[in-house]
Each structure stands twice: as C-alpha cells, then as structure tokens.
Amino acid sequence: MSQAKPFECRWGILATGWIATVFSKDLVLDPTTRGVTDVVHTIAAAASSNSVSRARTFLSDVGAAGATAYGSYAELVADGNVDVIYVATPHSHHFEHCLLALQAGKNVVCEKPFTVNAAQLKILVQMAREKKVFMMEAVWTRFFPISVEVRRLINSGEIGEVRRVTAEMNQAQDPDVKYKDGMHRMVNPDLAGGTLLDLGIYSLTWVYQCLYHTLSASEKASSAPSVIGTISRFELTGVDAENVVVSTFPKSIGIATSSIRIATDPDDSGRPAIRISGTKGEIQVAHPAYRPEKLTIIKLGGGVEEKAFPIPAGHGMFWEADGAARALRDGKLECETMPLDESILIMEAMDKVRYDNGFLYPKAIEKTDH
C-alpha cells in the first residue's frame, strides 16, 4: 500500500525583511530532515510593499525563485494560488496587514506579537471566525519538540503539581550605544518598539504554556490570571527597556521578565532561562527562552536527568509552519498548540502592564478603526 501524498501548503510571504527571510528559508527545507512526511511547504508568492524587484530578490535569496513576486500587499492577498499569508511586517503594522488578508478571505499566520493591543486582536479574531478562515500567532517556541516535552512532563505529573514558573528573556544589547538615534525597531515607539512586546512575549509564552495551556478546558474557564507588572524606560524614546510581569493563577504564580540592558546567560554557558517548579521537583530550560535546546529535570530528594533537543537544520521556524499546515489540511480554523484565546490572554497581560505604567504607543499605532 503506497504512502499518502503529503499535504502541500502554499504560502504567501507578506514583507521581505529579516524575519520573513528566516521563516522562508526554513519553509523550503526538506521536511524529512526533521522527520516530517505528512506536510510539505511551498512558497507560492511574496510581496514587498513598494517594489516588485525587491520581492524578486527576496524570493531568489530564500530559494524560491519560481514563486510570483508582487510590488504590493494587495496583489499578494488576491493571489488564488496562495493558501495562507505569513505576515512579517513590524508589530505596528500587524493589525493593518492581517485585516487586509482576512478581508480577502485568506488564512493568516502572523508573527508575534499578534497586534499592539488586545482590542486589535479581538477584532481580527472576530473577523477570522466570521469569515471561517484559519488564523494563528506565529509563536514558534510553542511548537518546538522541547516545548511539547515540557507540557507532557507537566501533564504527566513528573514534578508534581506545578506551583510556580519563572521565565526570563534578557539580552544585553547596550541600547544607549546601539540605539542612540532612537530609530531602531526595538526602541522606536512608531514601530511599537519596547522590550515587552519583542522579548517579553517569550517569557510570557513559557509562563502561559506551562500554567494555563496545560489545564483542562473546564479549568481554563475559571483560571484567567490576575496580572500586575512594572517597567523601566529607555529614556530616549520612552519605550520599556526592562519589565516584570506577575500572573497569578488560582493555584500557581508565573513571573516573566525581560530586558535589553542585562543578560540571562552572561558567559553563554547554558544557564537556565526557565524554571518550572513543582511539588516533586523542577524542570529547568536552558537559555535562550525563544530557542532552547536543553532541559534538566531535578527531582525532590535527588535525581537529575538532562534531555537535549537539537534543531536538525535551519532555524527552527518550520515546526510552527508544520502546525499551521496540519490545521489547514484538517479543516481547522485554529491550531491547538497556539489557540486564539490564549493569544488574547497574553496580549491582555501585556496591555495591563503597559497601561498600569502609563506606557502607550502613538494613537496611530493603538488604533482599532478599520
């Protein structure tokens, strides 16, 4: 009996910057190199916002020279050969470009963070559900085999009842020197800059995938956390340079931190970025929080086990693409690994911290009109 032909997912890449390049190079890798045989990815088209020649160069650079190049996003979302649009523009433009794709009836995978605020995201979710199209936030870390294993360990009771998660995503970027003109996307408020939305979302991802995603549906219904937090500013532009977010669940507490002034692992020796503490032990996940490859299980009273999860090739963004492709193949409108309601919950947490600390983006960035 012959093996079923893998499902082909045809992608349209909206934007041609760094993250689009990394994602696209991962898409064209042979999926069998990571043990995947049920789905395969094709880049059908890509668009630059203002230059078809730039789109052509991008497609050539990522190894998809036969795909269609467009000089506008409107042309891309109208392409009938595209199954799903990958939105890879800056945070500040996610709302606008997801709307464009949804209004064209296209499935959407949007880079993290989904939007600038929860109000924007709720509009997108409502539209996706009304139009019955698939939509997902591209939080690639959630799809790593190491994340799958951590969730399995939690659900199996390997470390007992999990009571606390601490997660940090700190990078010593020397912002006063590197970003002294205030224009870099990391610190530019006009591009929705700031540490919380760019790095802090990884810390929050670990807190929420460990303390919320692992709950049963009935438990989730009554387990939305209370959230408090604090920030320190990058004085030049007013965005946050450091933050702490505390999420209190009915039976557990999550503490997520991020910074562009200090380092989680100063000497690059594999120090833990995440500590998942249970009544019978602890799971430690090595830095970096966004792309970890090693965990350690430490049992109460003795016993240590290390597990490695090397990325076989590329950058590791293909796993989230595989998850989206399988959902599309199966006719689903969401991906169980990164549900829309959890994206909203995490965006609400970031909103709470920003608003409590008086950190607002320009009105043009926070807008919800469409």
How does this structure look, described?
With 370 residues, this protein is an alpha/beta fold. The chain folds into two domains: 7-139 and 323-338, Rossmann fold (3-Layer(aba) Sandwich), CATH 3.40.50; 145-310, Dihydrodipicolinate Reductase, domain 2. Helix content is 32%, strand content 24%. The protein has twelve helices and 14 strands. The chain has helices at residues 18-27, 52-62, 73-77, 94-103, 118-131, 145-156, 175-178, 195-211, 217-220, 318-329, 340-356, 363-366, and strands at 7-14, 39-47, 68-70, 84-87, 107-111, 135-138, 162-170, 226-233, 240-248, 253-259, 272-278, 281-286, 294-299, 304-308. The strands form two sheets. It has an eight-stranded mixed β-sheet, covered by helices on one side. The chain has a six-stranded parallel β-sheet with strand order 3-2-1-4-5-6. α4 packs parallel to α5 and α5 (118-131) runs antiparallel to α11. The radius of gyration is 20 Å and the shape is globular. The model has no long low-confidence stretch (mean pLDDT 96).
Provide a quick synopsis of the model.
This protein has 370 residues and is of the alpha/beta class. It has twelve helices and 14 strands.
From the coordinates shown, what is the CATH architecture of the largest domain?
Answer: 2-Layer Sandwich
Q: Write down how many β-strands occur, each being a DSSP E stretch of 2 or more residues.
A: 14
CATH class annotation of the largest domain: Alpha Beta
Q: H/E element string?
A: EHEHEHEHEHEHEHHHEEEEEEEHHH
Strand order of the largest sheet: 8-9-10-7-11-12-13-14
Shape: globular
| Uncertain residue segments | none
Relevant CATH superfamily of the largest domain: Dihydrodipicolinate Reductase, domain 2
Count of helical stretches: 12
The rounded distance between the terminal residues' Cα atoms is: 52 Å
Helix percent band: 25-40%
CATH topology of the largest domain: Dihydrodipicolinate Reductase, domain 2
Report the average pLDDT across residues. 96
* Broad structural category: alpha/beta
Q: How many structural domains in the coordinates?
A: 2
Radius of gyration: 20 Å
Strand residue content: 15-25%
Largest sheet: 8 strands, mixed
